[in-house]
UniProtKB/TrEMBL annotation:
Domain Transposase IS701-like DDE, first and last residues per copy: 26-233
Residues annotated as transmembrane: none
InterPro entries according to UniProt: IS701-like, IS701-like_DDE_dom, RNaseH-like_sf
Name of protein: SRSO17 transposase
């Protein structure tokens, strides 16, 4: 029984310090170097909401100004910090069969001033909403999975409006780019940085872009990218729609294979694989159309696949099934780390907040790999459970009661000043 209570507190603390020391080298002054550690600790804490005020209070600062400086005004490059995260992930989760997963997530917003916001389709909401969208890159391997990079999608309505760009601090070098183009940049940065990977997975937004697929073949990266039922592929009988090909398959073409383990059992589907030798281009390799059929509803899903060498069906199925991992990462980052709780309208602040959430998530993912092997009757420790334990056992004991009282006084003093200001402003206009 005693073994069941063993946790790797010292190893978690050492790993956290290793990552914080690494990204700390991106800060030239000691104040932001200390604050970034406190900021990430605040993201890991179970705060009701996460913003510069609540994180500053959690850190024991005498006000929110230091955390606001870290996000909005201090001198540091969030791109270099994300590069450090990729190196950290490569060292802790890297595997030659690693999978890069591209997907987007949306944050619902009010108004029109937050950078990138407009009415657009959000997969998170499942409909057109006033929101901002970001393309994320996730890394999955047999050792774990985590978010590693991000690019904010800037719609044409923003990219072509100099006044809105200036107000939101959008750099002049940033121009309009489609989501597949943003995904390609993220993937190429990961490959150039030496992150070990063999595959790329993505949904229809990326599978429908032939330029992205060609770029992946140029990098010799295999891919399993979802496509629409109307997607057309070259066959020996001419160019055909994917759904027409599926309709003509014989019964023996289908095989029942699990797309991965789920919380309630294996995720079994029926799968069929159609070779596409007519699709070969200057990159050579092997092309396939992969078709998934739901065992209960009969609903079909389609994937364009490529690999520089022949691979068995079950490997392509495993890559297709890996896409759910990015959704798991989004859920953990939003519910536990405040990914969508930022209150920043400007370009730089948005990227810095999101980058530090990625730092926190990468730490949790890596820390699960150094945890004690589970005893009988326990599942392996999860990212969400590790976050709770890390805060309770390492972060929270270091806080002082005096800091809690000081922030109660700070809030009440701030509210008193605000009330006085409101009454004074009202006295200037009302009788």
């Amino acid at each position: 029984m005693a073994a069941a209570y063993r946790v790797d507190v010292q190893r978690w603390s050492g790993l956290f310090s290793e990552l914080m020391d690494t990204i700390g080298e991106r800060f030239t002054r000691p104040e932001p170097r200390r604050r970034v550690r406190d900021f990430v600790s605040g993201l890991l804490a179970p705060l009701p909401t996460k913003n510069c005020w609540t994180i500053a209070e959690h850190a024991g600062d005498d006000g929110p100004g230091g955390m606001q400086d870290l996000i909005g005004r201090a001198s540091w490059d969030d791109t270099l910090v994300r590069a450090d995260v990729r190196q950290f992930v490569a060292a802790r989760l890297g595997h030659r069969d690693g999978i890069l997963i591209v997907d987007e997530t949306g944050d619902l917003k009010k108004g029109t001033h937050t950078v990138g916001v407009q009415r657009q389709y959000s997969g998170t909401a499942g409909k057109i909403e006033n929101c901002q969208l970001a393309v994320h890159l996730s890394y999955a391997s047999p050792l774990g999975h985590t978010l590693i990079d991000v690019a904010l999608y800037l719609p044409k309505s923003w990219a072509e409006d100099p006044d809105r760009r200036a107000e939101a601090g959008v750099p002049e070098t940033v121009t309009f780019a489609t989501k597949p183009q943003l995904a390609r940049r993220l993937i190429e940065a990961a490959v150039a940085g030496g992150l070990p990977c063999r595959w790329v997975a993505g949904d229809e937004a990326y599978g429908g872009d032939p330029h992205l697929a060609a770029a992946l073949r140029g990098h010799r990266l295999g891919y399993v990218l979802a496509v629409a039922c109307s997607h057309r592929v070259p066959t020996g009988l001419g160019v055909q729609r994917a759904d027409r090909i599926a309709a003509g398959l014989p019964k023996q073409a289908w095989q029942r294979i699990s797309a991965g383990d789920g919380a309630k059992g294996h995720r079994f589907y029926d799968w069929a694989l159609v070779a596409l030798p007519q699709a070969v281009d200057q990159h050579a390799g092997h092309h396939w159309l992969l078709i998934r059929r739901n065992r209960s509803t009969g609903e079909l899903a389609f994937y364009r696949c490529w690999s520089p060498e022949p691979v068995p069906l079950h490997q392509l199925v495993a890559v297709a099934g890996s896409r759910w991992r990015v959704e798991e990462s989004f859920q953990a980052a939003k519910t536990g780390l405040g990914l969508d709780q930022h209150q920043h309208r400007r370009w730089q602040a948005w990227h810095r907040w999101t980058t530090l959430v990625i730092v926190a998530h990468a730490f949790l993912a890596a820390a699960t790999t150094v945890s004690t092997t589970s005893t009988q009757g326990l599942i392996p420790i999860t990212v969400n459970e590790l976050r709770r334990l890390f805060h309770a056992l390492i972060i929270e004991p270091a806080r002082r009661i005096a800091d809690v009282i000081a922030w109660s006084l700070f809030r009440r003093r701030h509210q008193a000043t605000a009330i006085t200001s409101h009454y004074a402003r009202q006295a200037l206009t009302d009788p």
